[in-house]
């Protein structure tokens, strides 16, 4: 186990001392930050989609359409929402 740990440490040192390694390590750090931001954005989009669905149901009730306008995919939700916003403008 010690030999394996030593070999791993040696490999990390070699990678760290290789030309351009600082750029690679910097890019990996930036990538991690970007993935975190992306996860936060996706969570926000999910919340907005749930709110939009609830608002569309309320609007359908007010317009007298009932709740028969349930959609199967999120892309259909987005295109319908875009049409509704465009028509209202």
- The averaged pLDDT comes out at 78
Model regions low in confidence, pLDDT < 50 over at least 5 residues: none
Please report the distance between the alpha carbons of the first and last residues.
68 Å
**H/E element sequence:** HHH
Report the radius of gyration as a whole number of Å.
25 Å
Total E-strand runs: 0
Tell me about the largest β-sheet.
none
Helix proportion of residues, in percent?
over 70%
Name the overall outline: rod-shaped
Q: Which structural class do you get from the secondary structure elements?
A: mainly alpha
**Count, helices:** 3
Q: Topology, please?
A:
Elements: H1 2-17, H2 21-63, H3 74-88
Descriptive tags:
89 residues; 0% strand; mainly alpha; 3 helices; 83% helix
Task: Describe the structure in your own words.
The protein is built from three helices and no strands. The mean pLDDT is 78. It has a domain at 21-80. Helix content is 83%, strand content 0%. The protein has helices at residues 2-17, 21-63, 74-88. The chain is an all-alpha fold and 89 residues long. 0% of the residues are buried. The longest helix has 43 residues, at 21-63.
